[in-house]
Design brief:
Strand 5 and strand 6 form a beta hairpin. With 246 residues, this protein is an alpha/beta fold. Strands 7-8-9-10-11-12 form a six-stranded mixed beta sheet, with helices on one face.
C-alpha cells in the first residue's frame, strides 16, 4: 500500500527532471550555453609596462562570454597570446565565476626593419608605439636565423665593458657583419664568430697605439688574425689671408 505513493512521487520527480533537462537542452541549442553560469570576474596578474589589464580583458572577453562551464581555456589563452607584447600566458577557472589570467611580457632586445622588434629569444613581433624605444641595436636576418644572431649578440656583450654594437646582419649562409657605434664595419664570416670578435676587441687598444687614425673596416675572416682599414689622414685646412684693409 505504501509503494504506490512512493512510485508516484518518484515518477513525478523524474518527469520534472526530464522537463528540466529538455528546457536546459533547448536553451543550450538556442544559445550555445552563452550566459549560463556567467563569468563575472577576470583576474589579471599586474602590473605590466607595455600591456594593460584592459587589453587582456578585452582580448579574453569573447571566450569568457561562453560562461564558466563552456569557456575554452586554450582559446582564451590563444587570444591573450595574440597581443604583440605578450610572450606567454596561462588561463585558469576558479569556481564559480572567475577566470584567472597570468601573462608575461616580452623582453625587448632590438629592432628589425621599420615596424618590428626582437625579443631576447630572437622572436620577431610588431609593436605599436615602439618609436619611443631608443638606443636599441638593429638586427637583420631571416626569422629562422634570428635566434642565432641574437645569441651571438648576447655573447658578444661579454667581450666589452660597454655595448659598441649598433647593428648586426646575418647573410643566408650565416655570415655575420657588424656596425659598431664608432662607424667601424666588422666582417666576421660564418665560422668561429665569437672567438674572432673577442680577439679583435682585445686588440683595439694596441691598434690605436700603433696607429691613431680611426679604423673604418675590419675583416676578421682569417684563421690567425685580421685585417683593418684606416681612414685617410685628415688634410689640414690652409688659411686664406685677406689682402683687404682692416
Amino acid at each position: 500500500m505504501t509503494t504506490r505513493p512512493f512510485l508516484a512521487q518518484a515518477l513525478t520527480l523524474l518527469a520534472v527532471f526530464a522537463i528540466g533537462l529538455l528546457l536546459i537542452g533547448a536553451y543550450f541549442a538556442r544559445t550555445g550555453g552563452v550566459g549560463f553560469l556567467p563569468i563575472s570576474f577576470i583576474d589579471v596578474t599586474a602590473p605590466f609596462q607595455r600591456v594593460s589589464d584592459a587589453q587582456i580583458r578585452d582580448a579574453i572577453a569573447p571566450a569568457a562570454a561562453r560562461g564558466f562551464l563552456f569557456v575554452d581555456l586554450e582559446d582564451a589563452r590563444s587570444r591573450v597570446l595574440m597581443l604583440p607584447w605578450v610572450e606567454s600566458a596561462e588561463v585558469r577557472k576558479h569556481w564559480p565565476n572567475v577566470l584567472s589570467v597570468r601573462a608575461t611580457e616580452r623582453k625587448v632586445l632590438g629592432r628589425s626593419g621599420n615596424d618590428a622588434l626582437v625579443d631576447v629569444a630572437g622572436a620577431l613581433f610588431p609593436a605599436r608605439g615602439s618609436g619611443e624605444l631608443t638606443g636599441l641595436p638593429r638586427f637583420d636576418a631571416r626569422p629562422e636565423q634570428m635566434p642565432a644572431l641574437v645569441a651571438f649578440y648576447q655573447r658578444a656583450l661579454s667581450a666589452t665593458d660597454d655595448n659598441p654594437i649598433e647593428s648586426l646582419t646575418m647573410s643566408a649562409r650565416g655570415a655575420i657583419e657588424l656596425r659598431l657605434n664608432t662607424g667601424v664595419l666588422v666582417r666576421l664570416g660564418s665560422r668561429e664568430q665569437f672567438a674572432r670578435y673577442a680577439r679583435f676587441v682585445a686588440s683595439l687598444d694596441a691598434l690605436q697605439q700603433s696607429d691613431p687614425r680611426p679604423i673604418t673596416r675590419a675583416d676578421l675572416r682569417y684563421t690567425h688574425g685580421f685585417a683593418v682599414r684606416y681612414a685617410d689622414p685628415a688634410v689640414p685646412a690652409i688659411p686664406v689671408l685677406s689682402t683687404a684693409n682692416p
